[in-house]
UniProtKB/TrEMBL annotation:
Location of the active site: 65, 138
SUPFAM superfamilies: Heme-dependent catalase-like
Molecular-function annotations in GO: catalase activity; heme binding; metal ion binding
Known function: Catalyzes the degradation of hydrogen peroxide (H(2)O(2)) generated by peroxisomal oxidases to water and oxygen, thereby protecting cells from the toxic effects of hydrogen peroxide.
Protein name, as recorded: Catalase
Enzyme type, top EC level: oxidoreductase
Species in which this protein is naturally found: Schizosaccharomyces osmophilus
Keywords tagged on the record: Heme, Hydrogen peroxide, Iron, Metal-binding, Oxidoreductase, Peroxidase
Ranges in coiled-coil conformation: none
GO biological process terms on file: hydrogen peroxide catabolic process; response to hydrogen peroxide
Compositional bias ranges of the Polar residues kind: 497-509
Positions of transmembrane segments: none
Length: 517
């Protein structure tokens, strides 16, 4: 650094530049050398220290939801729901719990644009008095799959081709057209309402899954969580998203950061839908099927409280990148339901956290519970706590741990049956809710059905013909008019592409685009 510039930034109170071990350094921008212009010396610890740190800066990005942004805030209870749950953070109107939110895209890498058509993640971490509670949802009330064995392959079909490392529209629709339980999510994703939200402040968040509430009498209920944006919902059309991509691909991140920075704090109101176990037995849909909503007229919403985000991260890496959200981080009063996708998620997230962040990821400040932790687990790499000091590390009769407080959720569901590995059958029932979405949600708003058809056609036209044909049949099961309209527009788009720009070629298992000549 020039001596002049150095004088400007180094006032009397400026911190002294040091190595990682605190040793003050005279000139941080020069290596120790032999004479003027000679070779460097290995004994220059500062230089080695600098490189050791730099060479290890990157940790693995999240395997999904890699691109995201977040902020801190508070959840405040506004309505009494203690008859449904004994969750301590909900036990009093007016009670406030500090929290963190992270919003994300699903399939892109860390550098992918915020304008990409993709579901948005909606992950929340509550620092409750009795531990950490995470609600890891999306901006869509349902999802593509209902058997967890499909998740990794579904994600592969949306990511990059193993050979060309290009996004592959054929793989994308090949998977979806073979697995039509995805149709409801596809409908929401390709509408203007779900796939291209206007940043993160104007979208709703859903648990999507059914969870369980348990009250202090050990009675249980099934519930779905809805965080509705108090800013209202706002989306971009395909064209607006494409334009924004050219102008500012970081639009979502910037919009959230700047709104909080200027004191325009975004907030969401939490509602829950509640179902008794008896009603669950009689419900017209499987209440644990992640591809189905609970229609509002059948299962009304109950207000719970409001979350407000009012503090930007101080440091993006430590506050957002190192945050570890998991559906398995639960507290007494809430529990997993028999939804098999939710059950697998409770394994997958902490497993990936140990890979991404290390065995003691819970000790990283952003993940640390704000209550004491006592158990018999100890040690491990990068343990930075007091390691529970001299407390016994086994169930000692001489110095017992505090009593086990949490009453188990016993005598709830009873499951009997034989072990089976059957593929889920697709029936007409699977198309009822996509049809309601097409007719009642998109049909209600002028231009939305047209935009949906256009959005699908632009994307599907870049898949090979056999896959396109299969997907038309799937949309035809939603509504004959929808199937016909998608087919017409998609084939027109494909024709246009062949004449003027990119044509699709399918060489064996390679689905690539090459310019027409
Ligand atoms: P409802 O009419 O009671 O609910 C429709 C839902 O769609 C409401 O949450 C509504 O939000 C939302 N919606 C409508 N227009 C828009 C829009 N422009 N932007 C964002 N969201 C919008 O019907 P049902 O409960 O019977 O559901 C019908 C279909 O609606 C479902 O098949 C599903 O695809 C979709 N849907 C249902 C939800 C649910 O939990 N039941 C949640 C979200 C979507 P608002 O209340 O603000 O109008
Ligand atoms: C992130 C797995 C379904 C919402 C992740 C991560 C994994 C994963 C491994 C990366 C976590 C990390 O590195 O911290 C799975 C599996 C699923 C599944 C195996 C199904 C079998 C879902 C569903 C939703 C969802 C249905 C929403 C309802 C999210 C969100 C994140 C995420 C929001 C980002 C969390 C964050 O901000 O750090 N998922 N997922 N996932 N998933 Fe899932």
């Amino acid at each position: 650094m020039l001596e002049e510039a150095k004088k400007l930034v180094q006032g009397e109170s400026a911190p002294v530049y040091t190595t990682s071990t605190g040793c003050p350094i005279y000139n941080s921008l020069a290596s120790a050398r032999i004479g003027k212009g000679g070779p460097i010396l290995l004994q220059d610890f500062h230089l080695i220290d600098l490189y050791q740190k730099f060479d290890r800066e990157r940790i693995p990005e999240r395997v999904v939801h890699a691109k995201g942004s977040g902020a801190f805030g508070t959840f405040e209870v506004t309505k009494d729901i203690t008859k449904f749950t004994k969750l301590k953070m909900f036990n009093k109107v007016g009670k406030k719990t500090p929290m963190l939110a992270r919003f994300s895209q699903v399939s892109g890498e860390q550098g992918s644009p915020d304008t990409f058509r993709d579901p948005r993640g909606f992950a929340l971490k509550f620092y409750a008095e009795d531990g950490i509670f995470d609600m890891v949802g999306n901006n869509t009330p349902i999802f593509f799959i209902r058997d967890p064995a499909k998740f990794p392959v579904f994600i592969h079909s949306q990511k990059r081709d193993p050979q060309s490392a290009l996004r592959d529209n054929t793989a994308y629709w090949d998977y979806l057209s073979q697995n039509p339980e995805s149709t409801h999510q596809v409908m929401i994703l390709f509408s203007d309402l779900g796939g291209t939200p206007y940043g993160y402040r104007f979208m709703n968040g859903f648990s999507s899954h059914t969870y369980k509430f348990v009250n202090d009498k050990n009675e249980f209920y099934y519930c779905k969580w809805h965080f509705l944006s108090n800013q209202g919902t706002k989306s971009m059309t395909n064209e607006e998203a494409a334009e924004m991509f050219g102008i500012n691909p970081e639009f979502g991140r910037q919009d959230l950061f700047e709104a909080i920075d200027r004191g325009d704090y975004p907030s969401w109101t939490l509602y829950v839908q509640i179902m008794t176990p008896e009603d669950a037995e009689k419900f017209k849909y499987n209440p644990f099927d992640l591809t189905k909503v609970w229609p509002h007229k059948d299962v009304p919403m109950h207000e719970v409280g409001r979350m407000t985000l009012d503090k930007n991260p101080e440091n993006f890496f430590t506050d957002i990148e190192e945050a570890a959200f998991s559906p398995s981080h639960m507290l007494p009063g809430v529990d997993v339901s028999p939804d098999p996708v939710l059950q697998v998620r409770t394994f997958s997230y902490p497993d990936t956290h140990r890979h991404r962040l290390g065995a003691n990821f819970e000790q990283i400040p952003v993940n640390k519970p704000r209550c004491p932790v006592f158990n018999y687990s100890r040690d491990g790499p990068m343990n930075v706590t007091d390691n529970q000091g001299s407390m016994p590390n086994y169930p000692s009769s001489l110095q017992p741990l505090a009593k086990e407080y949490h009453e188990p959720n016993e005598n709830h569901e009873k499951w009997v049956g034989e072990v089976t590995y059957h593929m889920d059958e697709i029936t007409d029932v699977d198309f009822e809710q996509p049809r309601a979405f097409w007719e009642r949600v998109l049909g209600k708003q002028p231009g939305q059905q047209d935009n949906f058809v256009k959005n699908v056609a632009g994307h599907l036209s870049k898949a090979v013909p056999v896959v396109r044909q299969r997907q038309y049949k799937v949309f035809g099961r939603v509504h004959p008019e929808l199937g016909a309209r998608i087919e017409k527009s998609t084939e027109e788009e494909a024709q246009k592409a062949t004449k003027t720009g990119n044509k699709v070629v399918n060489q064996g298992n390679k689905h690539m685009f090459e310019p027409a000549n």
